[in-house]
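Here is the promised in-class demo. Please do not try to memorize the tokens; focus on the logic of going from shape to residues.
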């Protein structure tokens, strides 16, 4: 079996488990009013992988999958850094299973963009930006749960740049960011502009959603896949009201059954 075939087999299994344990939620099934994302956009679905560490068998599967991905797609990586907070347990699992050294970023309150970081760093204290061992010549791979618009990854890259300089390290580089799930809403394009390779176990729009199609209601599937490619269309309050009514009707039908 080729790596691509094995990757799809594992990805399909993991995305099914994420849905099973409600780490992938939809407006239709879970919350008729939908979600307001950090970006300010309204969304008919929500992915929250923070509970992942509460399911050790699933976390172990993810650790195995990501460690295999690193070996197959970015084998020059010799150290990984988990992005706070959800990327930390994932990186730890990858470190143990893949026998690769790991670190993690420090969470920076109120920092949501590289510009915020540049302002924040002027008043920052003596804490490290990255916890763990770094060495000259390290080739870093950042680890996180998912990616939407790349802002948190850009901040992590800034943290690495700052920390390497503070420690006087030479030739520390990062050209790879690895995530469990890519929402496929523009992050890969931004990564390429920053000369970063974005690797994902589950490309959600092109593969993850089709893998879940059999467990979704027809309208649920159609709305979410359309949203991923046309998010602005769903920012209209009248559209959100229409989807609210669809969800409530769907829940009433399920209740009657």
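The designed amino acids, position by position:
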């Amino acid at each position: 079996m080729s790596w691509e075939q094995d990757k799809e087999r594992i990805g399909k299994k993991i995305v099914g488990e994420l849905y099973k344990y409600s780490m992938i939620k939809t407006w239709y099934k879970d919350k008729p009013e939908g979600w307001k994302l950090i970006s300010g956009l309204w969304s008919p679905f929500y992915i929250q992988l923070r509970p992942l560490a509460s399911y050790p068998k699933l976390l172990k599967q993810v650790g195995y999958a990501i460690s295999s991905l690193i070996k197959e797609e970015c084998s020059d990586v010799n150290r990984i850094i988990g992005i706070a907070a959800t990327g930390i347990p994932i990186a730890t699992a990858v470190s143990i299973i893949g026998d690769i050294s790991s670190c993690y970023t420090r969470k920076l309150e109120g920092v949501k963009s590289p510009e915020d970081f540049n302002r924040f760093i002027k008043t920052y204290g003596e804490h490290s930006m990255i916890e763990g061992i770094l060495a000259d010549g390290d080739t870093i791979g950042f680890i996180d749960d998912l990616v939407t618009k790349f802002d948190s990854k850009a901040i992590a890259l800034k943290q690495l740049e700052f920390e390497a300089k503070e420690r006087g390290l030479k030739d520390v580089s990062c050209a790879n960011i690895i995530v469990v799930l890519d929402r496929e809403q523009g992050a890969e394009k931004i990564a390429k502009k920053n000369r970063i390779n974005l690797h994902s176990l589950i490309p959600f729009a092109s593969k993850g959603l089709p893998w879940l199609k059999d467990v979704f209601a027809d309208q649920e599937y159609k709305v979410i896949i359309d949203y991923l490619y046309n998010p602005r269309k769903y920012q209209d309050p009248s559209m959100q009201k229409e989807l609210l009514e669809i969800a409530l009707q769907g829940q009433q039908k399920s209740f009657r059954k």
